[in-house]
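Protein: Nucleoside diphosphate kinase
Species: Exercitatus varius
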Amino acid sequence: MALERTLSIIKPDAVERHLIGQILARFEQSGFRIAAIKMLHLTKPQAEGFYAEHQGKPFFDGLVEYMTSAPVVVSVLAKENAVKDYRTLIGATDPAQAAEGTIRKDFAESRQRNSVHGSDSVESAVREIAYFFVDTEICGR
Ligand code: RTP
Ligand code: MG
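Structure follows.
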């Protein structure tokens, strides 16, 4: 399996409930190395650009409003098979559908306020990492 990077966001609902530390600990306990990390309060254009693939969907405006409602913690996580393994760690989009022991099962409030984001493919990860970080901000291999 190849060493990969994926893009994680700890979303506003989790930041507001002081869950940053617990969620970062889950990442590290699950074998991910934090290669880059920053906290920021997304602007409307930043959130719209990040979720451009969902433009026009019924949940898009609410998603942008939510993602700009409080700060987020964006990180680059490195591990073998990181993209798929991270999606397994966070669980299904809707916490009601998420498997036991996943981050969304344990922390998410709703299908929208679901605590974390993860890249859905290696191609998305490359694009999403470049959306938030320049190469010199990413540490290690
Ligand atoms: P993400 O991109 O944030 O990792 O989540 P995902 O792949 O599991 O889900 P996606 O379909 O890409 O949706 C992006 C985010 O939009 C919000 N959402 N709300 N109200 C709704 O029906 C609905 N559907 C999606 C969620 O915050 C979801 O993570
Ligand atoms: Mg997605």
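Remarks: Helices lie at 12-16, 20-29, 44-50, 60-67, 82-90, 103-107, 122-132.
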